[in-house]
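Handout, section 4.2: multi-component inputs.
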Amino acid sequence: MLLTLTLAINITLMYSAPLIFTSLGGVLSERSGVVNIGLEGMMVIGAFTGAAVGYFSQNPWLGFLCAGLAGGFLALFHAIACVSFRANQTISGVALNFIGLGAALFLSRIFFDGATMTKPVPNKMPKAFTWLLGDTENQILRNLNVDITVLLAMGIAVLLWFILYKTKWGLRIRAVGEHPAAADTLGINVYRIRYIAVILSGVLAGFGGAAQSLAVVSIFSPTVISGHGFIALAAVIFGKWTPQGSVLACLLFGFAQALVVLLGGGTVNIPPQLLSMLPYVLTIVVLVLFVGRSAAPKASGTPYEKGVR
Amino acid sequence: MKKLLAILMASAMVLTVAGCGGGGNSSSTGSESSSTPEGGEEVKFSSAMVTDVGGVNDQSFNQSAWEGLQTAQKDMGIEVKYIESKQEAEYGPNLEILSDEGHDLIWGVGFMLQSAVMDAAAKNPETMYALVDSDFGADAPKNTIGVLFRAQEPSFLVGYIAGKVTETDKVGFVGGMKSETIDQFEYGFRAGVAYAAKELDKEIAVDVQYANSFGDSGLGKSIAQKMYAEGCDIVFHAAGNVGVGVIEAAKENDKWVIGVDQDQNHLAPDNVLTSAMKMVGKAMNIVIQDMIDGKDLGGQTLVFGIKEGCAGIAPTSEKNVPEDVLADTIVLEEKIVSEEIVPPYSEDTFNAFIESLAK
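Output:
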């Protein structure tokens, strides 16, 4: 029983860590008034960069960092298009999803002899408690020894919550997302805030991708990120555009996946097709029963033009 | 401002296309047409293939297929070519391109191309088409060849190895999606384990779980994590990229995993015990050679297995499999070739096999 419980915790956290990074990025961007549908593409480029740099440098931390830079670089285009040129944010985001995947495969073919899969990285991100537990044989302790990315994701969530709600900067970000014109009249540079928020959201999505390719597995393949960005996007809305809410939403999704794994196989034969529906059914049920009305930041999705009323 | 934006978006789209295709076209092609064989005499034959969405470097059957054609080019001096499909909608057009070029034999690689090959065959009755991993049923068109594999045979062998090597008397199987093809792997493997258990006179349990996906590595890792935690010490997977996660779990838990389709030892040299290999390229070579020799294969379904040299266990097995087990496996391989043992490929044949084993 205890074994199953710790296994469920292990799978839940493993599954949700990449989603948490990415959905925090989504929260940041949307709170500043820019919809970021391109999270998936930024995750893919992050996953590739993380695995590629991790393979060549043999240092997973360097890979993780570069993954953030790559995601941020891609997000820069989103910021240029949506903030400076007031493009339709949905279209720009969709384009970035294609660019992210295309660029990752293209670069992979250049660096890995034409293969769309990188080689496995020699060192992956460490586990969080190996220093404490050592190489224990106890299965329960092993299950609790989660990836360090889980702790990182939680840490960033707390940090983001603090910044958004307890600092001057957070107030400005939220103001820009609700009523940019009012913020502008008070002397806040709307464009700069939006630029920073969008680029940081890309950095976080890049981290999310690397959390998948350097911690969950240790290789990049074209399907290593398949829909994670969109699930993270859904978690943003599910969590009412707050860091704490979207973390819970990601954990719920991870837990649903753990249920699928734990209920499948074994002696009770539940059809896998039914089980696969579970995460989505659970999401809808929770959405209807517990979450209630949620309202997006008012200016989210609308470009800001100085002086236009 | 609007103009600048338009230029930006246009360049973004161009970049995307370039990123996908590695060229201006939405699908990349490669051809090598130096048709002088090393032997000397020149054969006028050309064969081309369309990959499925995996692409030609998928480290799986598409790659195996293209390597097969390259071998055919080298050994038989034929002309070869491939076109990669980036999405499912391109199967038809890509087959059309090759049909117009007039090749002697056009391959569709992967069961996903079945209906596209069927259409192309109906439109171009003069051209011969072959399909890997699927067939056209009883009333197959006269200009099509179905190429199938008895994947249960290598699966049986790796199952036997797993049964002999396991110390916990519990092994696992992770499948992609329940289908006839994956059934071959599952029941072949389970039969192999049962055969080894009979030899050792003990009970060995097999945990079976389907991921219902071929792409979600995280799911594969979770399932394998669970199997290892519950006492399995060897897990076999037949689940595409889900298997990447299974191998990862084996690495983290320092347990054995058995690879599929290709020799997957390079993914985790200390944890991949062996691999159940399906040599698509080899089978393609046999078909091409038969056609050059003038055999009429049209409308037939050809099935390849260990006997034809198109399946088996990975050459790297000797690294991790104990010597005596490997020797026994080779004996078993010969029994499969001589049809003394016929590995089951479905639930019914599996039950029959277990019954005959109990006698």
